[in-house]
C-alpha cells in the first residue's frame, strides 16, 4: 500500500478504510485490493469559502481486470466555529439530497444528458463529507474567474443550464410533492443567510464603496440616490429578497442559485469548449429560472459579452435547449422565448446583488484575494481593506453600470 500525501495536510479519517468504502460504492463490489492513494489539494485559498476540498487518485486491483485507477474529489464541510451559522441553512443535507436523489431523477427526465458529477459516498462522521468523481481526467476544469468567461464558455453553459432547468421542471411536474419540500424552500441566498452578519456586513460595505464610485458617473444620478436610500435604511437585501421569492407567473425550476465560475466545470478538447456541468448544489431552491441566468451574467461573463451578447445567448443557446428538453419530456405549457426574456428582466435585482456582493469578491486576482477566507471575513479591518480593493476594479464598475440600467428601466429600484 503506497500513500503519497505530497506535503499536504490531510485529515486522518481520509484513510485506507475510507477509500475502500468509496471504491466499493463506485464499482459495486468489495472484492478488490487497494494498492495506492495519492493526495493533492482540490482548490486554492480564496476559491472555496465553505468547504475543504481534496483531490485523490486511488489505485486498486480487481481480479480479472488488473490495476484500475479511481479519480475522486473529496469535499469536507465543517459546520462549526466560523462556519457554524451555515449549519441552520442545511447546506450539507440539501447537497446530499440533490446529488443522491434529485439530480439522478432530473437526468432521468433528460435524454442521456449529464448535468453534474456522480456522487459515490456521503458521511457525517467525523465531519460532513462527500466524495465525487473527479472530472479533470476527462478534460473538465474551472474557467477564469478574474476576467470572466468568453462567449464560447457562455454558449456551453447556457445550453446545459437550459437542459438542467428543463429536467427539473419535468421532475416537478411528475412529482408535485417536491413543490412543498422544506429542503427546497429557500436557497443559499435567503432571509436566513441575509440575516447573518457574515453576508450582510460585506454587502453593505461593498454597497457603500460602490456608491462613492457611481456618484461620479454622469447619467446615474437617480440610481445612485436610490442606492443611497438602500444603504441608509439597510433594506437593500430585503429588496433583493423580493426578487428572489417566487411571484405569480414565474417559470419555476429547481434552481442552482449560485452559478459562479467555480461552481461550473467546463470541458475542453483541443482548447475548444465542448461541454459544461454544475457542481456545489448546496444552495438549490425552487425558484425562477431567471435567477440562474441573471446571476451567471452578473458574476461570470467578461465585459464584452455582458455589454452586447446576453439576449442573443438566451435566444440561440439557453432557450432552444430548454424548449427541446421540455418537448422531449412531454412538458405541459412550455414557456415562450418572450416569457423567458421578460422573466430575466423581472429578476434583474438578483443580478445587481451579484455585482455588488459577489463579483468584487471573486474577480480579484488570486494573490490579492488569498486572504479571502471565512476566518478573514470575521476581521473588520481586514474586511474593510478587502472591500476597498475588491470594489475598485473596472470590471465591477462597468458591470454595475449595466445592471443599474437594467434595474432602473424595469422600475426595480423604486
UniProtKB/TrEMBL annotation:
Coiled coil: none annotated. It comes from the Eukaryota. Residues 130-328 form the CHK kinase-like domain. InterPro entries: CHK_kinase-like, EcKL, Kinase-like_dom_sf. Pfam families: EcKL. This is CHK kinase-like domain-containing protein. The lineage of its organism: Eukaryota, Metazoa, Ecdysozoa, Arthropoda, Hexapoda.
